[in-house]
Design a protein that fits this description.
Rossmann fold; 6-stranded parallel β-sheet; 7-stranded mixed β-sheet; TIM Barrel; alpha/beta
Length: about 450
């Protein structure tokens, strides 16, 4: 059996030499362990996928790139008769919306579910409907309707999942991505949690994986892509000394995400001992009112500022992310956020910044609010949610704030965008691409045209 896994990315947004389809590589590693006779191919190129000639195709999609994934599946169905599976955050949030031409959707954690599907295919040469009835974690078409099976329990302990199959991707000298945990124990109103329960790999597992990756693919930077890396103080206290003993903190800088309200002097010291030099803080707003809405009353502007001061004192390169366009946000709130960013940038507390208009993601409180107001629907044009500071279409943006005219918001948007570029150009972030001309036409996939530019094959 040949399984082809396709990483679908917006070519305008793809950052060359940075993006790595970590989830697909984990799936490949899990299959290699349990069904080594199955050949797995991971790519971001349609031409390479078709040339491979897979028996089954798997496509992953978050909501912002779901429209592209759907167009891709239609393109593939016109050229091959093999089953196409859909996984990722979008189908996990809305499993009952499985669209043709996807034959099966995989929701939640995918490794064990994909393994069961592969075993069904190996046994039967296909996916008979009666064979899918008891398969947990899937959604599929039957008699003109969509069947959603029960959720699959999460894999425990997490160390049972083998490392990603790195040799299926051309890592080169790029920043290495690595996961040390899954899930998040918090419930921010704007954030969809694909895996709701926090679980972590053991320090020994993490160290062994780092040794393998950095030996085979030397790099000066490793990005811990966890939803929340610095949440378990005990784990960090064990991890740092183990990394130092193995020489994993020499000439390698680590990047991680942490909540501002969890940053203490002790936690910062533990992160530093583990080689972390770049910290990404989800600061979100300079207004307590807006922070209360976005983060469910779990943090304040004062705590954000305290976290920035601690990170500055520890000499971290601190990257802060912010959201504008929140329901209830006033001009005073936006002014406070702007001044918070500008002041901390001038004081070098913030060295890099991410900004985004509030995006409505299915499965969130924000989505439920927008749905009740008729601003979104389950059959909407999903690429309307594929927007950020660099790629923004004001006419198609789903604007949620009834307390501010959209024209006023757009004026502020341009002001924040200018600040975004002033900060990030000053410090020369290699991971932030220059803006390109925004393509307003719908994605077209004519014969022979393959928009993905990766070099995985």
């Amino acid at each position: 059996m040949k399984l082809g896994l396709l990483d679908v990315q917006n070519p305008d947004k793809k950052v060359e030499n940075f993006n790595i389809p970590l989830g697909l590589l984990y799936l490949a590693g899990y299959l290699r362990k349990h069904v080594p006779e199955v050949s797995v191919f991971v790519t971001d190129r349609l031409d390479s996928l078709l040339a491979y000639g897979p028996d089954v195709i798997g496509v992953t999609a978050m909501t912002p790139n779901y429209k592209m994934a759907l167009d891709t599946a239609i393109f593939l169905k016109d050229r091959t008769s093999v089953p196409i599976l859909l996984g990722g955050a979008h189908i996990t949030a809305l499993p009952h919306t499985l669209a043709h031409p996807f034959d099966i959707g995989v929701f939640g954690e995918g490794e064990a579910t994909l393994l069961e599907l592969v075993r069904i295919y190996l046994s039967e040469g296909g996916f008979a409907k009666e064979s899918l009835t008891d398969t947990q974690g899937i959604t599929y078409h039957k008699n003109g309707s969509v069947c959603v099976n029960s959720a699959r329990p999460l894999i425990a302990p997490l160390d049972e999942i083998p490392p990603p199959l790195w040799d299926l991707w051309n890592l080169g000298a790029r920043v290495k991505w690595m996961s040390t945990s899954r899930g998040c124990p918090y419930s921010c109103n704007f954030c969809f949690k694909m895996l709701k329960h926090y679980r972590s790999f053991s320090p020994a597992y993490i160290v062994n994986q780092l040794k393998e990756v950095l030996t085979r693919y030397p790099s000066r930077s490793v990005y811990f892509v966890d939803d929340l890396f610095a949440v378990d103080r005990k784990r960090l206290a064990e991890l740092g000394p183990m990394m130092q003993k193995e020489g994993l903190t020499r000439n390698v800088s680590y990047i991680c995400t942490v909540r501002a309200d969890l940053v203490t002097e002790e936690m910062a010291s533990l992160m530093w001992e583990a080689g972390v030099r770049v910290v990404h803080l989800g600061l979100e707003s300079g207004s307590d009112k807006i922070l209360s809405y976005l983060k469910n009353e779990t943090t304040t502007v004062e705590e954000n500022q305290r976290a920035l001061e601690i990170c500055y004192d520890k000499a971290f390169f601190t990257f802060g992310s912010f959201i504008i366009g929140t329901p209830g946000e006033t001009e005073q709130d936006l002014d406070a956020t702007y001044e918070f960013i500008k002041r901390n940038w001038e004081l070098c507390r913030i060295r890099g910044v991410g900004m985004s208009p509030l995006i409505v993601l299915p499965g969130t409180h924000v989505w439920a609010d927008a749905l009740s107001r008729g601003l979104v629907s389950e059959d909407m044009e999903w690429d309307r949610l594929d927007m950020d500071m660099m790629f923004f279409d004001p006419d198609r943006y789903v604007y949620l704030n009834p307390d501010m005219k959209k024209e006023t918001f757009l004026t502020y948007f341009e002001k924040f965008k200018d600040l975004f570029w002033a900060i990030n150009k000053k410090f020369g972030h290699s991971v932030i691409p220059e803006p390109k001309a925004k393509t307003t036409q719908k994605v077209q996939l004519p014969e022979g045209h393959f928009p993905w530019k990766g070099k995985s094959s």
